[in-house]
Amino acid sequence: MASLNVGNLGEYLREQRRTAQLSLRQLAEAAGVSNPYLSQIERGLRKPSAEVLQQVAKALRISAETLYVRAGILDEKEREELETRAVILADPSINERQKQVLLQIYDSFRKENAAEAAEAAGAAEAATAADAGADAGTPGPAPDAESPSR
């Protein structure tokens, strides 16, 4: 059976399982999946669903989002955003209204930065296109005005 392209998910899971000092059988039981299936995931022969990854993450006491990124289900920026939101929502020292206000401010900053990045990218693209157009239509060096022409 050919190995699927699941990044280094299987290696990462094996490393986390060993760090937690769990056997393959113990982790499979804790995650509610079969031992052979978990073995195939670790060897890169199977690509697990998000649900299975969540069960495995819970059993290993690690972030499910990290496993989603490694499996290609979630990209890194999305993971960072989810983790930031989770930290804000989990903070017991602030009340629910304060959490919602913080999330609104966070969202507004993200939108503002995304708009600025898009604007900068558009300006850079326009400058590159203008440079390319100028280079294509630019004649050789202009004649020197001080030298007499005869």
Describe this structure in words.
- The structure is a single chain.
- This protein has 150 residues and is mainly α.
- The chain has seven helices and no strands.
- Helix 2 (24-31) crosses helix 4 (50-60) and helix 5 (64-71) runs antiparallel to helix 6 (76-90).
- The protein is flat and about 65 Å long.
- Mean pLDDT is 83; it is low at 1-7.
Write the layout of secondary structure elements.
Layout lengths: L8 H11 L4 H8 L3 H8 L7 H11 L3 H8 L4 H15 L5 H42 L13
Helix pairs in contact: 2-3, 2-4, 4-5, 5-6
- Choose one word for the global shape: flat
Number of strands: 0
Instruction: Provide the β-strand percentage band.
Output: under 5%
Spell out the helices and strands N to C.
HHHHHHH
What's the main sheet like?
A: none
Low-pLDDT stretches are 1-7
Mean of pLDDT: 83
Q: Which structural class do the helices and strands define?
A: mainly alpha
Rg, Å, rounded: 27 Å
Report, as a whole number of angstroms, the end-to-end distance.
82 Å
Which range best describes the helical content: under 10%, 10-25%, 25-40%, 40-55%, 55-70% or over 70%?
Answer: 55-70%
Number of helices: 7
